[in-house]
């Protein structure tokens, strides 16, 4: 894995500053947006490992900025990062006041400057459009709400950076089926146990409920734990009747997590459309076929990889190369 080299530019203190006659060019930034589960992380790792090896990823998922609940918030694992540097991922203390879009604007722009000083390519990746908007809007008003309500505030069309927005999109019927499968996989990987630990250890008492406490999975299982004290699961049932009650309670929590995740995806897409319709130049990449292949039992991993490469990686790499060459 190629590592980033520190900048080799040496400036002479004695040299007289040159007066620039041309306007300074804005920093180039690639942004991968899209609904939860649409494949943003996978594409960012493809970029970072194969095409744009100087990439450094800046996470823009508002729940993944916090430390803890790694499975529940579906953070990319160390292994899956393949050595591509990640920023603002699991670094904010969830007990402190919530990390707001204004915080993201401030910290995100500092990270962008650092990445630039290493001659890296900042890759902003994540589904929280309030974070994306705050980071890029030239005139950002934390009080304004550009996404919600019947009469939302106007979207700032002037941007602080030169951005290439890639939107990885998957049609809803296919994405919803995939999200349901993903929740089952997250539970198989230990999401339930992670949440048991979160409540049993008392971590839930220190967490800020306007921050990480909002993560999908917490309220749904909190109801279950309240209804079934002792953090029991079906295998801890002591009668036939108990098995039925525990199974129903557990299935209800899982059903609500799946519903809420699908609702989240819908809201995220409507926010991307809001930015695009207002005039942000967002390039849509349709990843539906690759996800359809994932959902088809008989299609092996190779077929999925081929479709992903042809329909997602190739067109988006082309867009980014063109953007960087401009
Ligand atoms: P909003 O203004 O609705 O908070 P946003 O653009 O700031 O929208 P989203 O990414 O759409 O942020 O997240 C909205 C909500 O979705 C979060 O408050 C949280 O409940 C849930 N959510 C988002 N990301 C995750 C995640 N990784 N894990 C669990 N829940 C999440």
TrEMBL record:
**What name has this protein been given in UniProt?**
Uncharacterized protein
Species annotation:
Smallanthus sonchifolius
């Amino acid at each position: 894995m190629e590592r980033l080299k520190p900048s080799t530019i040496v400036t002479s203190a004695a040299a007289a500053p040159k007066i620039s006659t041309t306007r300074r060019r804005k920093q180039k930034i690639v942004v991968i947006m899209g609904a939860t589960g649409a494949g943003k992380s996978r594409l960012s790792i493809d970029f970072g490992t194969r095409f744009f090896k100087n990439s450094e990823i800046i996470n823009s998922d508002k729940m993944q900025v916090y430390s803890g609940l790694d499975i529940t918030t579906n953070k990319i694992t160390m292994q899956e990062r393949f050595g591509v540097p990640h920023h603002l991922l699991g670094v904010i203390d969830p007990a402190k006041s919530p990390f707001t879009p204004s915080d993201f604007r401030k910290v995100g722009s500092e990270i962008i400057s650092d990445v630039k000083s290493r001659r890296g390519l900042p890759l902003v990746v994540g589904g929280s459009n309030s974070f994306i908007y705050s980071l890029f809007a030239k005139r950002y008003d934390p009080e304004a709400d550009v996404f919600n309500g019947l009469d939302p505030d106007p979207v700032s069309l002037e941007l602080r950076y030169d951005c290439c927005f890639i939107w990885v999109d998957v049609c809803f019927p296919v994405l919803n089926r995939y999200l349901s499968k993903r929740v089952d996989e997250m539970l198989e990987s230990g999401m339930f146990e992670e949440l048991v630990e979160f409540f049993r250890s008392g971590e839930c008492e220190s967490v800020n409920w306007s921050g990480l406490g909002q993560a999908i999975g917490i309220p749904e299982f909190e109801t279950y734990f309240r209804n079934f004290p002792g953090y029991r699961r079906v295998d801890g049932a002591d009668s036939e009747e108990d098995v039925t009650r525990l199974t129903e309670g557990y299935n209800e929590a899982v059903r609500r997590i799946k519903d809420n995740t699908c609702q989240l995806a819908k809201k995220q897409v409507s926010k991307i459309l809001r930015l695009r319709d207002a005039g942000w130049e967002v390039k849509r990449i349709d990843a539906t076929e690759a996800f359809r292949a994932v959902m088809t039992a008989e299609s092996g991993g190779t077929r999925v990889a081929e479709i992903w490469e042809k329909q997602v990686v190739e067109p988006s790499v082309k867009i980014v190369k063109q953007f960087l060459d401009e």
